[in-house]
């Protein structure tokens, strides 16, 4: 550790920050349905997920060794570029968290790194075909495969358990769901913590601290594991709400089918060497289970917003990463400027997130009037339109709770149209 | 640009079959351990149809079969952990 320069130190801290955002961004993957079906209490669920992520981080270093070896040409990479890429990824993760949309943290990382490399080393350093086969194709395939599997499984389980009382079977389904969610958490810790380890190792290698073919040292593994576990424990409640309640209504059999499908797809794909995004797999599985139940619905408006976010992940994180790379390439002041800008933007996003707070206490609350400390009940009807508009622009899709809160505790109707700013609740 | 259709197909096929199998087996376990819904169950009163063997508890055979199903699922989970670690 003695030869680490300031720049490498900054890169490593940034990588850990990314790891942290990755953790709280992806808590939803394993735990959204577990929480929304009531299989586990919110706090207990994120705690279990955090522990399993930490354990998972120590299980393997295979992914860490390959992260640097494909998408970008590592010979042209300098620590500033990695730093810029990470900044792009962090910004995208925070922004999607603010609006409560699940999007792939891995894609954000790839996008940031690709953008930073493009802007600093030119197009030659990007392996376009690798981007296509490792990022774009899986992004289309993941939700389809997982959705199909969950759809078929949901159909099957409802058919088989036809003659049974739902109250009687719910407990069993919930236990099964916990097991599946645990597997997803463990796999997530193994895969995603390793991505950060890989980036940290890459930075250490480019800085000449480690030999080119070295694996991650222990302190890298430990710090990456702890960062992702802390992020997971903090919980990205906004995204959990979208995935658990926003995409579709989930009952225990559906939650079990979706989570099992997701676990299976993640394990099968990582075992067979076909990288799929955990987030996309889980979202797809949840939608599939929504379609699989008789009378089940998928809220396509929310789903569409999510798809748009997926499409934007790579270019948006890439753009931020690229601009940061341009600035950081100017020398020490450039790096400092990027770091300060990133901190300022994060602080702004955090402040915005306080306006409509979503945490463990109201994560399942889509329909009840829970006036947090945000758009409180003091709003006069005249403000409601403006407020709703503001809320719409920054808040997670299922904003019935927010609207209900701004409408002085009137339970909002569940229809999508009720969220339009021009249609205020008129009852009472 | 060579898209690895074989890997994609393999992942899809394996995922589909495995998910359906596991969910199916687990559901059989649940069916085996839960009581059959009597015809008059639900929110109706127990006046039900003629001589309904109301909410008959599962037989010993069904119960042991169900435990075998759960054991199989536990084995799947163990294999999953093995895949993560390996």
Automatic annotation (TrEMBL), chain A:
Chain intervals with Low complexity compositional bias: 368-382
Keyword Transport: yes
TM regions (residue ranges): 6-24, 44-61, 81-101, 108-128, 140-158, 218-237, 307-327, 333-351
Keywords on record: Membrane, Phosphate transport, Transmembrane, Transmembrane helix, Transport
Record localization: Membrane
Topology versus the membrane: Multi-pass membrane protein
Region named Disordered: 362-382, 398-428
Domain of life from the UniProt record: Bacteria
Family indicated by similarity: Belongs to the inorganic phosphate transporter (PiT) (TC 2.A.20) family.
PANTHER family reported for this sequence: LOW-AFFINITY INORGANIC PHOSPHATE TRANSPORTER-RELATED, PHOSPHATE TRANSPORTER
Protein name: Phosphate transporter
Species annotation: Streptomyces zingiberis
From TrEMBL, chain B:
Keywords, sorted A to Z: Membrane, Transmembrane, Transmembrane helix
Highest taxon of the lineage: Bacteria
Transmembrane domains' residue ranges: 12-31, 65-85
Protein name: Secreted protein
Organism field: Streptomyces zingiberis
Upper classification of the organism: Bacteria, Bacillati, Actinomycetota, Actinomycetes, Kitasatosporales
């Amino acid at each position: 550790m003695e030869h680490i320069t300031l720049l490498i130190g900054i890169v490593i801290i940034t990588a850990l920050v990314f790891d942290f955002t990755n953790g709280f961004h992806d808590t939803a993957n394993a735990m959204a349905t577990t929480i929304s079906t009531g299989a586990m209490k919110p706090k207990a669920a994120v705690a279990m997920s955090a522990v399993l992520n930490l354990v998972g981080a120590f299980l393997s270093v295979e992914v860490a060794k390959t992260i640097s070896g494909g998408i970008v040409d590592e010979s042209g990479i300098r620590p500033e570029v990695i730093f810029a890429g990470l900044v792009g990824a962090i910004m995208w993760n925070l922004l999607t968290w603010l609006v409560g949309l699940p999007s792939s943290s891995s894609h954000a990382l790839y996008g940031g790194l690709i953008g930073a490399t493009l802007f600093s080393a030119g197009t030659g350093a990007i392996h376009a075909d690798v981007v296509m086969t490792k990022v774009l194709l899986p992004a289309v395939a993941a939700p389809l495969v997982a959705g199909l599997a969950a759809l078929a499984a949901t159909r099957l389980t409802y058919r088989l358990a036809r003659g049974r009382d739902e109250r009687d079977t719910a407990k069993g389904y919930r236990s099964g769901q916990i097991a599946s969610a645990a597997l997803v958490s463990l796999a997530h810790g193994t895969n995603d913590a390793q991505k950060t380890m890989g980036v940290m190792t890459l930075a250490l290698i480019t800085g000449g601290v480690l030999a080119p073919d070295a694996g991650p040292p222990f302190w890298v593994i430990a710090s990456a594991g702890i960062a992702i576990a802390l992020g997971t424990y903090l919980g990205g409640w906004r995204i959990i709400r979208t995935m658990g309640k926003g995409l579709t209504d989930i009952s225990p059999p559906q939650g079990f089918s979706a989570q099992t499908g997701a676990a299976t797809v993640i394990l099968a794909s990582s075992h067979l060497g076909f990288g799929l995004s955990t987030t996309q797999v889980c979202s797809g599985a949840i939608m599939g289970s929504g379609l699989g139940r008789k009378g089940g619905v998928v809220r396509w408006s929310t789903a569409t917003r999510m798809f748009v976010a997926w499409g934007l992940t790579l270019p948006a994180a890439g753009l931020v990463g690229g601009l940061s790379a341009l600035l950081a390439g100017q020398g020490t002041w450039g790096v400092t400027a990027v770091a300060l800008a990133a901190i300022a933007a994060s602080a702004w996003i955090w402040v915005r997130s306080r306006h409509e707070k979503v945490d463990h206490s109201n994560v399942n609350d889509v329909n009840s009037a829970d006036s947090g400390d945000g758009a409180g009940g003091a709003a006069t009807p005249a403000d409601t339109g403006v407020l709703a508009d503001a809320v719409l622009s920054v808040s997670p899709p299922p904003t019935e709770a927010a609207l209900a809160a701004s409408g002085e505790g009137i339970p909002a109707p569940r229809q999508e149209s009720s969220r339009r700013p021009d249609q205020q609740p008129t009852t009472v | 640009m060579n898209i690895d259709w074989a890997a994609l197909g393999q992942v899809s096929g394996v995922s589909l079959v495995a998910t359906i199998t596991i969910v199916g087996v687990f559901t059989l376990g649940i069916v085996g351990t839960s009581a059959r819904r009597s015809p008059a169950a639900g929110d109706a009163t127990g006046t039900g149809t003629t001589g309904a063997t109301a909410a008959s508890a599962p037989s010993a055979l069904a119960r042991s079969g169900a435990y075998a199903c759960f054991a199989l699922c536990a084995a799947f989970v163990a294999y999953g952990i093995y895949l993560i670690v390996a």
